[in-house]
Structure to design on (202 residues):
């Protein structure tokens, strides 16, 4: 064991046994070091023969065991693709096609511009029509017509009338025909002449 006497020129010896336990240190901190080195080698000329390299025989065996890798959501940019297909068909023979009844509806809207035509010339038409109307028997009930009351008032206003000299033909009087003349009361210059059969009083 190391004594406590002053050190001499003799070799230092220790016969003790030192047992180290686990030592945990903190993370070392290394400062940034700048190093610059410049060397100049002055070699004598060296003459070598032709090197001989044998055929190497190299065999490698890699066993890769990856650990679990978790990545974020991939971001895939927009891809642009252009394809051109040229199809050349061979001769195809098919059976006669069978088509069902098609229902089609066509609506045409025609908008015409202004059209001016000359005066049309029409020939003389030859039209003959023959209508045969055969009415069926119609039986109605007895009509009921109410009493109708009608009143008419005529006001005649004559203008001045100038006539020429009247021409009266020959008057033929048959004395065998009896006549009755009576004057209407209240109407001056009005008389009624009624012709009666012979020998019969009016």
């Amino acid at each position: 064991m190391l004594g406590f006497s002053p050190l001499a020129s003799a070799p230092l010896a220790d016969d003790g046994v030192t047992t180290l336990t686990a030592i945990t240190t903190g993370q070392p901190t290394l400062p940034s070091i700048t190093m610059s080195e410049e060397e100049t080698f002055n070699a004598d000329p060296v003459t070598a023969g032709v090197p001989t390299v044998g055929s190497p025989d190299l065999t490698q065996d890699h066993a890769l065991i990856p650990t679990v890798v978790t990545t974020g959501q991939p971001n895939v940019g927009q891809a642009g693709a252009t394809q051109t297909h040229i199809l050349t068909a061979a001769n195809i023979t098919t059976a006669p096609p069978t088509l069902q009844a098609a229902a089609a509806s066509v609506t045409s809207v025609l908008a015409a511009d202004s059209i001016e035509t000359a005066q049309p010339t029409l020939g003389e038409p030859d039209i003959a029509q023959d209508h045969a109307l055969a009415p069926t028997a119609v039986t109605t009930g007895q009509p009921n017509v109410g009493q109708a009351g009608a009143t008419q008032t005529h006001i005649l206003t004559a203008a001045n009338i100038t006539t020429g000299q009247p021409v009266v033909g020959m008057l033929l009087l048959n004395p065998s025909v009896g006549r009755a003349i009576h004057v209407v009361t209240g109407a001056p210059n009005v008389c009624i002449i009624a012709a009666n059969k012979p020998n019969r009083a009016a």
The longest strand covers residues 178-183. The chain has a mean pLDDT of 77. The two ends are 202 Å apart (CA to CA).
